[in-house]
Amino acid sequence: MKSNIINRRNFLAQSGMAAAAALFSPSAFATLAKPRFKMGLQLYTIREAMEKDVAGTLKRIASLDYQDVETYGFDPAGIGYYGRRAKDFHQLLKDNGLTTASGHYDLFKYLHSPDDVLLTYVDQCIEGAQQLDQKYITWPWLAPEDRNIDQFKLLASRLNIIGARVKKAGLGFAYHNHDFEFVDHGGINGYQIIMKETDPDLVKLQMDMYWVVRAAKKQPVEFFRQQPGRFVMWHIKDMDRTTEDYTELGRGVIDYTKILPDVNLAGMQYYFLEQGGNFRTGNAMDSITENADFCKRKLRKFL
User: Hey, what's the signal peptide range on this chain (predicted)?
Assistant: First the structure.
């Protein structure tokens, strides 16, 4: 009898170990819920740190489990970023296990330039993006004097021209929104013009969730339903409950657990956490730490 009890215990123990081994085997890990998308950061959030110490800042970013970054700023003459040649900056990213899927380029400065001048700059952007292995070149801004209906229509035509050039080079092109696209101009706004008058095959959309919620007064899904698959990149940031300024993720009013389930409808491929200012401690590095932690705890299960 005692021998049977011992054998039974051994069997149960061995069975439990086998089950555990199966659960935690490499193949089992592959089947566990694993994020589909890299956790990204728009580097503009930590612009002061990037100006002071590029290498140290990128190392810190990687230590927080960010895997992808979106660049801002570009030196077209030297094909460089942050005071480094593109290939050297790319190597610095690789040394820290980082990639860059997109960059914000100063295309808005060429809105009124002749086509040849515009396309010369676009070609320089393409060269830089290719050296960084970026997938998208993104138009990030529009000067205040250009925020009227006539200029939005001009913008749409320029976006199509740029998109065709970028696509021919094997890259993607996207437009990033702020608040001014949602200002009403006699029953129409700039975002409507961009969505209607640009070719979705040439011009994708990088949606800034904060500005859509604050300025458009709509939920992002309302736009996704209009043009499914076009919103290939997202900027994820929160809105303060009182001031409506930026705030750290989880401290504001934007409930991303209700937005993120629509990533497939939107066509999202990349996302970037961003916070342009209003840092709780006054230190942007503290804020990107808090944002990364919240994302990993609460949001990555959707991503």
Answer: 1-30
